[in-house]
Design a protein that fits this description.
The complex is a heterodimer. In chain A, strands 3-5-1-12-9-10-11-20 form an eight-stranded mixed beta sheet, sandwiched between helices. A five-stranded mixed beta sheet of chain A has the order 7-15-14-13-8, sandwiched between helices. In chain A, strands 16-27-28-29 form a four-stranded mixed beta sheet, with helices on both faces. Chain A is globular, with a radius of gyration of 28 Å. Chain A has three domains: 187 residues, Alpha-Beta Complex (Aldehyde Oxidoreductase, domain 3); 341 residues, Aldehyde Oxidoreductase, domain 4 (2-Layer Sandwich); 138 residues, Aldehyde oxidase/xanthine dehydrogenase, molybdopterin binding domain (Aldehyde Oxidoreductase, domain 4, 2-Layer Sandwich), CATH 3.30.365.10. Chain A is α+β, with helices and mostly antiparallel strands. Chain A is 29% helix and 24% strand. Chain A starts with 22 loop residues before the first helix and ends in a 10-residue tail after the last helix. The relative contact order of chain A is 0.12. Chain B folds into three domains: 148 residues, Roll (Ubiquitin-like (UB roll)), CATH 3.10.20; 80 residues, DNA polymerase, domain 1 (Orthogonal Bundle); 226 residues, Uridine Diphospho-n-acetylenolpyruvylglucosamine Reductase, domain 3, CATH 3.30.465.10. In chain B, the strands form five sheets. Chain B has a five-stranded mixed beta sheet. A five-stranded antiparallel beta sheet of chain B has the order 9-10-15-11-12. The termini of chain B are far apart. In chain B, α18 runs antiparallel to α19. Helix content of chain B is 35%, strand content 19%. The chains are: A alpha+beta, B alpha+beta. Chains A and B meet through α1, α3, β28, α17 and α19 of A and α2, α3, α4, α5 and α19 of B. Chain B: GO terms for molecular function: 2 iron, 2 sulfur cluster binding; FAD binding; iron ion binding; xanthine dehydrogenase activity. Chain B: This is Xanthine dehydrogenase small subunit. Chain B: Its EC number is 1.17.1.4. Chain B: It comes from Marinomonas arctica. Chain B: Pfam families: CO_deh_flav_C, FAD_binding_5, Fer2_2.
Chain lengths: 784, 498
């Protein structure tokens, strides 16, 4: 007989949660990212020539000097693409290379393949392109005025907002311009394409959606999808930026690879990445809210204009999600929420952790801060008053918020963070401190979990058990640092009852799991973990069946616990048992599948249940501001967050902290800037500032809310990727609170987003001016 | 051109002058643990630890390899992440990062590991413990987009525990006697390639300049190399002035502090720590630890950026700049006369900055530096004020108000200075007149860092802040460090009362 493999050693690590599966590879530099893969001697490198006009017809293109540049091997324009040049993820309009028309500065017009990236970059500058410029729309306000949208407007309504607004005792009408955010994944966009012997191609992509890269590569090459293989082992960060917009790199590299019969790498240097790829949408939100003298919201009318950029990309879902989260944690009895998909001649904005949600949540929290000042109450009291609770439990789109997690969680954090005492202390501090002012805010988040595109709510897995008892699982999800591979391995180990170390998660490949959804919407573990669980249970069922027959035992006499197979009164090691099953011809491989139950949203009626459940959390932030300059420090943050029954608390806490800081960065130091030609001026980390270690508070605690998911999610856990990003809003609200303190909280001054020192300084000035202009009279400015 | 890469002695004369250390490791050696995150020295994913002999001792410091020419590291010991773990045993920095879940996507991780390893090694040598400020300082040039830093800071704080709980790990430095010996012999007979010259004294420098009149000068290269990595410019011959002994002087003579042009920010930061705390505080706000280890004072001034931070400081002290001509002759120019226009200076084509002379008397007078930027660490100023008040008998006898970010060049507010000079220190009317004057003489612009209006408001407010400080009023200026408990409880600095 052929030899079966030897068993492998399992080290004792009991009681400890598994660390990130790549942690040791990360710290030793052994983890391989695409740019680290060995290069073939004939490998070519890509750079693209970019539009310098925001909106223009191309009159002529002369690429002679580009072609003649030393090292240049190939230059292509749109006409050289063998298949369809459209690389849009959902609709149309995103072109691999522009034709005779451009609609943003930074749009690729031609691509160069050269023997080095440096030669390619030097060559593209020699292009001579003549444009006939057209008028450009650069601001979402202009989009609305000109009614220029990438997709139709959608409106959600409940009750009668117009009547309730008219009847409300008090009203606030204002607007809030929310700037976007650069992803700044540390690993820039990259793909390597390697042609195969059949005219097909293998693509190594840094993508959250390998199935889409596969589909689009096939489309630009005019090939069947089955001829394209896409593999993703890991990304150096994604955050949504590699959901749809990674595909164009794979497509460009693939076209050049097949044309030239050699491997081609397309890596965007940081500046190209910051110019050429989409970001978090800006939103221009105008709002009117009606409320009682106690601060209870009676009516809300919100107009939310997303700056989608030049094409639809994923903007439909982004604007929908912004609308679905404009209530955040608060009951709106009468509401009209309209979401506009503003078209601008700027790079097409895309998914970014939270996917529109943060723009709704920030609007909601801004409204709360303003109502609190208007009625002279602590903002936390307004939050609790309006929070979803029994009798006030239906969202504007008709989904019930049927557990009482939100209020309980907020009250638990209120107590554990000593909110009330700190508020007192801060008031006292602000009274006696002339130059420094403190601010405090407790803000909640309620985030809907499921893709709002129903069909994406499916997951697939492929699982093999080998004869030494080792298990290989592959699934449709991608690893971008969030610990998905670790969690799926834990789920498989738990499902089998075996040690975690027996499970190996392989890289994500389109030939193992087909048609997979993007790893997005926080749903990676929910979908792929469930699919892996399904596959594991299928095999475990076969093993049980085999055991019953082979050992003549009852079904309940079979179990696998603590890495041991229990067979009635006997036990057997897992590898030994698997060998036995193999010798008795039991199939040890299975696919697994999952589709999220219960969900559905009727777009026509604007009602339904888009989400399986909500993930919840709250944060208290305290800040101190220097009134001379508007500079500030975040001095304390306490977070309580709901991840259901945590699969891996270390990983979940890492997600919460990281998301919080990313959300804080969005609202503080990270400021996108564009000139009046539509050119992005923040095109490098030298002028776009994400937080550093010095920006996080020394007092920074994160606790997990102790309650299982009431829905049947994988091991009753909850999604964690995106929701805590919105906890960063507590910092913005605390800054607004500090500014309001200058006017004795009788006026909540408008605070720009992001709240840079400059923005905080001018908000303080506004509060100061307001106070000076009031001559001690009681504020009535907020109500009409 | 010779250096030691991890445990290998390398001798290579085939490299372009501007070939970066990052590219060398990744493309020539297959050492891909070191990553390119930005290519501009802003993210730290490419951080390396570099050992150099200083006074017979091996000293390690971090740098951004993406903007460092590999040839500038001749005669040094380059440590990349691949070298830190031995036979499966992790360095305490690595073990601490694993234990505290300090990595998520992992792309920035090798850079953090090297910054932390450098901190650990230096603390071990100095027998110092590591506090939070030290950790944040060490990783000030390392960006992480996943973790939110808390676990990385915790990792940094617990490295010493790792050393005792993991198998005894021999520190990098103590095991490096062999490296030391090798470097000593490299230093004795330095070899340079023809396209990258690294003179060690003025005589060699003069020869190098004479033989290569078209060569470009480079010191730390933290700005020049952006031409190479961001604008894809190829340099021919580079003459590296960072090792010229005469340009490295940093000393106090009878009446003068002399700062050589090739003194790095980190060197001046260490030098100023006890004697010149205000200068030290400003230096700690300039760029990141990695950049400060490479960038030079001369470069900051010669670069002539209107938003550089040292020109206002030097303007506040009326520093004299010693200029050195290629023929060996020198001349002195006062910094107030040095800047002619945007990115234009008095420097002739055949001149370079040799040193700065600062009067000790003026250094002893009241002075403050305020830097305002969107982010505390590693950011370029939106607005910067350097102020010096000479006081005699309650009267302001000499006033300097120097700004960054307020005009096309670093600039003094001369009308405002005049409005205060000769007035009592507590004359608020004079202060208001000075502020009024400022509004007419400063011409800031709006850009992605700040609006013109904010810049002007900052100029005015910071003068008021300085004036309040001069008059003994307690004001607080934030830094990258945590706000102290005394400020948090009272709004006042405890130390000013000590």
């Amino acid at each position: 007989m052929r030899k079966l493999p030897q068993d492998f050693a399992i080290s004792s690590q009991k009681g400890l949660l598994p660390i990130h599966e790549s942690a040791i590879k990360h710290v030793t530099g052994q983890a391989i990212y695409i740019d680290d893969m060995p290069e073939w001697p004939n490998e070519l490198h890509v750079a693209t020539g970019l539009s310098t006009e925001a909106h223009a017809d191309i009159v002529s293109i002369n690429l002679d000097k580009v072609r003649a540049y030393p090292g240049v091997v190939d230059v292509i324009v749109q006409a050289d693409i063998p298949g369809d040049p459209d690389v849009s993820p959902v609709l149309s309009g995103d072109l691999m290379l522009a034709g005779n028309f451009v609609h943003y500065i930074g749009q690729p017009i031609f691509a160069v393949a050269a023997t080095s990236l440096r030669a390619a970059k030097q060559a593209v500058r020699l292009a001579e392109i003549v444009y006939q410029p057209r008028e450009a729309t650069l601001h979402p306000r202009q989009s609305l005025e000109r009614q220029e949208f990438v997709l139709p407007t959608h409106t959600i309504q409940c009750g009668n907002a117009t009547e309730a607004m008219a009847a409300a005792p008090r009203r606030i009408k204002s607007d809030l311009y929310i700037k976007g955010q650069e992803h700044f994944y540390l690993e820039g966009q990259i793909s390597v394409a390697v042609p195969n012997e059949d005219g097909g191609v293998q693509v190594f992509a840094s993508s959250q959606h390998p199935a889409e890269v596969q589909k689009l590569v096939a489309r630009v090459l005019g090939l069947p999808v089955a001829q394209v293989l896409v593999e993703v082992r890991r990304m150096g960060g994604g955050f949504g930026g590699k959901e749809s917009q990674a595909a164009v790199l794979g497509c460009t590299a693939a076209v050049l690879a097949v044309r030239n019969g050699c491997p081609v790498k397309y890596r965007m240097p940081r500046q190209d990445d910051m110019v050429q790829t989409g970001k978090r949408h800006d939103f221009w939100n105008s709002y009117q809210v009606g409320f009682s003298d106690e601060g209870e919201i009676l009516a809300a009318e919100y107009d939310m204009v997303g700056k989608c950029g030049c094409t639809a990309d994923l903007s439909d879902g982004v604007v929908d999600r912004a609308m679905f989260h404009a209530d955040n944690a608060y009951f709106l009895p009468n509401a009209r929420i309209s979401g506009y998909r503003g078209k601008t001649h700027t790079v097409s904005n895309t998914a970014f952790r939270g996917f529109g949600g943060p723009k709704g949540v920030l609007l909601a929290e801004n409204v709360i801060e303003e109502i609190a000042c208007a009625v002279g109450k602590d903002a936390l009291d307004i939050r609790k008053l309006n929070c979803y609770q029994a009798g006030k439990d239906t969202t504007p789109y008709g989904q019930k918020v049927d557990d009482d997690v939100l209020l309980t969680l907020m009250e638990e954090l209120e107590a554990s963070s000593d909110y009330r005492a700190r508020r007192q202390a801060i008031n006292a501090f602000n009274k006696q401190s002339p130059f420094l002012k403190k601010g405090l805010a407790l803000t909640p988040v309620k985030f809907g979990i499921s893709f709002t595109s129903k069909h994406l709510n499916q997951g697939g897995a492929l699982l093999h058990v080998y004869t030494d008892g080792s298990v290989h699982v592959s699934h449709g999800g991608t690893e971008m640092g969030q610990g998905l591979y670790t969690k799926v391995a834990q789920i498989v180990a738990k499902a089998f009852g075996i040690d975690y170390q027996r499970v190996n998660v392989g890289s994500t490949r389109t030939d193992k799991v087909p048609n997979a959804s993007p790893t997005a919407a926080s749903a990676g573990t929910d979908l792929n973990g469930m699919a892996a669980l399904d596959a594991a249970m299928t095999i475990k069922g076969r093993l049980q069946e085999f055991a019953m027959e082979h050992f003549a035992i009852a079904a309940d006499a079979f179990a696998i616990e603590d890495d041991q197979v229990i067979l009635g009164s006997e036990t057997m090691g897992f590898p030994e048992f698997i060998k036995l099953a193999y010798m008795n011809r039991v199939s040890l491989s299975s696919t697994g599948f999952y589709k999220t139950p219960k969900i559905g949203y009727d777009r026509k009626a604007a009602k339904g249940r888009p989400f399986l459940y909500y993930a919840n959390g709250a944060a208290v932030a305290e800040v101190i501001v220097d009134t001379f300059t508007g500079e500030y420090k975040v001095t304390q943050v306490d977070i309580l967050h709901d991840v259901g029954d945590s699969i891996n608390a270390d990983i979940d806490i890492g997600q919460i902290e990281g998301a919080f800081v990313q959300g804080m960065g969005w609202l503080t130091s990270e400021e996108l800037s564009w000139d009046d030609k539509g050119r992005i001026t923040t095109n490098s980390p030298a002028n776009y500032k994400i937080p550093t270690s010095a920006d996080i508070p020394e007092k920074f605690t994160v606790k997990l809310f102790d309650r299982a998911n009431s829905e049947e999610s994988v091991y009753r856990s909850k999604a964690v990727g995106e929701p805590p990003l919105m906890l960063g809003i507590s910092v913005w609200c605390a800054l607004k609170d500090a500014c309001a303190s200058v006017a004795d909280h009788k006026f909540s001054p408008p605070l720009a987003v992001p709240a840079t020192p400059e923005a905080v300084y001018y908000a303080m000035q506004a509060a100061q001016n307001h106070k000076a202009g009031m001559n001690g009279e009681v504020a009535k400015e907020a109500s009409l | 051109m010779q250096f030691i890469l991890n445990d290998e002695l390398i001798d290579d004369n085939t490299l372009p002058s501007d070939f970066t250390a990052l590219r060398y490791l990744r493309e020539k050696r297959g050492l891909t643990g070191t990553k390119e995150g930005c290519g501009s020295g802003d993210c730290g994913a490419c951080t390396l630890l570099v050992g150099a002999l200083e006074d017979g001792e091996l000293r390690y410091s971090t740098l951004n390899s993406c903007i460092t020419p590999i040839q500038s590291l001749a005669g040094k010991h380059i440590v990349s992440v691949e070298y830190l773990s031995k036979a499966g045993e992790l360095h305490p920095a690595q073990q601490a990062m694993v234990t505290h879940h300090g990595s998520q996507c992992g792309f920035c991780t090798p850079g953090f590991v090297l910054s932390l390893a450098g901190l650990y090694e230096n603390a071990q040598r100095a027998e110092q413990s590591i506090d939070r400020e030290a950790v944040c300082d060490a990783i000030s040039g390392n960006l992480c987009r996943c973790t939110g830093y808390r676990p990385i800071i915790d990792a940094g704080l617990s490295m010493s525990d790792m050393a005792s709980s993991v198998e005894p790990f021999t520190e990098l430095m103590s095991q490096n006697n062999q490296v030391k010996t090798q470097l000593e012999s490299l230093q004795k007979e330095p070899k340079h390639s023809r396209n990258y010259l690294q003179p060690t004294d003025l005589e060699q420098l003069a020869q190098a300049l004479k033989a290569n009149p078209a060569a470009t000068l480079i010191a730390g290269g933290t700005d020049l190399m952006l031409e190479n990595t961001q604008r894809y410019r190829d340099f021919d011959t580079l003459i590296d002035v960072s090792c010229v002994a005469e340009l490295k002087q940093l000393h106090v003579a009878e009446t003068t502090l002399t700062i050589g042009a090739s003194v790095t920010y980190s060197e001046l930061e260490a030098f100023s720590k006890t004697q010149y705390p205000q200068m030290n505080a400003l230096l700690s706000r300039i760029a990141s630890r990695q950049i400060r280890n490479r960038g030079t004072i001369g470069g900051n001034v010669a670069n002539a950026s209107p938003i550089a931070d040292l020109p206002p400081l030097l303007l506040a002290f009326d520093a004299d700049i010693q200029l050195l001509k290629n023929d060996g002759s020198t001349r002195a120019v006062n910094i107030a006369d040095f800047y002619l226009g945007y990115k234009q200076t008095q420097l002739a084509k055949d001149e370079m900055i040799a040193s700065f002379d600062v009067s000790l008397d003026k250094l002893a007078q009241f002075h403050r530096f305020y830097k305002v930027s969107k982010r505390m660490e590693d950011d370029i100023s939106s607005a910067m004020l350097a102020v010096r008040f000479a006081v005699d008998n309650g009267e302001l006898t000499d006033v300097r108000l120097a700004f960054g970010g307020m005009a096309a060049t670093p600039i003094r507010g001369r009308k405002a200075e005049a409005a205060l000079t000769g007035k009592r220190i507590n004359d608020e009317h004079a202060l208001n007149q000075a502020i009024e004057a400022l509004r007419s003489e400063l011409t800031p612009m709006s850009d992605m860092r700040a609006s013109a209006a904010y810049r002007l408001d900052m100029a005015c407010n910071l003068i008021r802040k300085a004036w309040l400080e001069l008059n003994g009023t307690d004001v607080v200026t934030f830094s990258g460090h945590a706000v102290s408990d005394s400020i948090l409880s009272t709004g006042l600095e405890a130390s000013t009362h000590a």
